[in-house]
Prior knowledge:
Aspartate Aminotransferase, domain 1; Aspartate Aminotransferase, domain 2; 2 domains; four-stranded antiparallel beta sheet; single chain; binds D-malate
Amino acid sequence: MxxxxxxxxxxxxxxxxxxxxxxxxxxNEANPEAAKRLIRCGIGxxxxxxxxxxxxxxxDAVDELGDASTFKGYGPEQGYAFLREAIVENxxxxxxxAADEVFISDGSKCDTGNILDIFGHDNVIAITDPVYPVYVDxxxxxxxxxxxxEKGAFxxxxxxxxxxENGFVPAIPDRKVDLVYLCYxxxxxxxxxTRAQLEAWVAxxxxxxxxxxxxxxxxxxxxxxxxxRSIFEIEGARECAMEFRSFSKNGGFTGVRCAYIVIPKTLxxxxxxxxxxxxxxxxxxxHSTKFNGASYPVQKGAAAVFSEExxxxxxxxxxxxxxxxxxxxxxxxxxxxxxxxxxxxxYVWVGCPDGLSSWDMFDKMLHEANVVITPGSGFGxxxxxxxxxxxxxxxxxxxxxxxxxxxxxx
Length: 410
Ligand code: MLT
C-alpha cells in the first residue's frame, strides 16, 4: 500500500493563483464576449519584453553551447562564479557578503519552499498575516503545522497581524519563535520596512537564536533612498538572516527563471544535541544533491542585468511599472477606497468598499469591470476585506483598468 504525505490533505483549497485561474476560466467560458475585454491584474506576472541586454547575452550563450570549443555541460550547482560575483558587486557591495555565500536557483518560490529541507520539524515558525501563501503551504506540506481552522489559520504557526495601524510591518512577537518569514517590499500589501524596524527584528532574532528568512524579491522597486534594500544592511544580520532575491520582477524573468539565496557562513542553527551548526554547508549539500544548477544561458542573461545597458533597461522597466502603480493608486483613491502600498512596491493594496468580502470584490471586479484582481483573504485571514492590484501590466491596460475602477465605484 503506497502511503501518501497526509500533510497535503490539510491544504484547504488549491494554491491561490491556480484557484483564481480556475474561476477566471469558468467566467470566460460562460461569458465569451466579456472575456474579450478581460484585463488581468491578479498574479504579479511581468508583461514587458526581456531587456535587450539579457536577450543578447542569452543568444550569445546559446551560440557558445552550439560550438564544440565553448560547449558546456553541467555547471556548478551553486551557480557560475560570473553571476555570483556580479551579484555581490552590484547588490551587496560593502555589506560583507562573499560570492560563495550566494546560491543561484531557478526561483524564489522554490527557494523559500525548499529551504525547509534543512530545518527540523520542531521549530516555532512565524509568518506575517497577510502573507505570500507559499510560506504557509510549504510548511504545511513539510508537516510543520497542525490542521487549519475555519478561517484557514494553521495550528502551530504564529501569525503576526499586519494592519494599517502597524503600517503592515508586524510587531516583534511577545514569545519566542525560531524561524520568521519577512518580505519587504511586501507581497501582498506593498508596504516597506524601515531600518529601525529591521534593526528591531535582527535584535530579536539574535536574542532568541532565531533565523529570519528575508524575502527581498521586490527590492528593485524601492524608490525611497532611506529604505533598506537588504537585511544585510543591518548590523548583526549576518548572524541571524538569509536573504531571497529574484530576477523575476526586475529583469522580467518570470518565464526565464533565475533567483538566488544569500546565506552568510556566519549563520548558525542547532542540532538535536544542541550543538551549533553552520547553515551554509547544509544548504550547499542540499542544493547540490537535489539541483543541477540554473542553465548557462539563463545565468548569462541574469548577469547582463548588471551590465551598463542592462541596468538602464531594467530601470526603464521599473519606472514603467511604478508609473502604473501610481495611476492605480490614484484611481482607487479617487473612487473613495482606502489605498496602501504601490509607492515602493509594484502592488497596490486596497480596502473593499461597502463591507464587501475579498472574494465578493473579486467577483464584482470580474463580472462588472472585467478586471482580475487578487482577493486579500487569499493571503490570510488578516487580508479579508482587502484586494490586491498588480501594477505589472502594459500602460494601456492600466489606464483602462483605472477607467473601469472609476466607472464601477465612482
Ligand atoms: C504574486 O502574484 O504574488 C507573485 O507573482 C507570486 C510569485 O512571485 O510567485
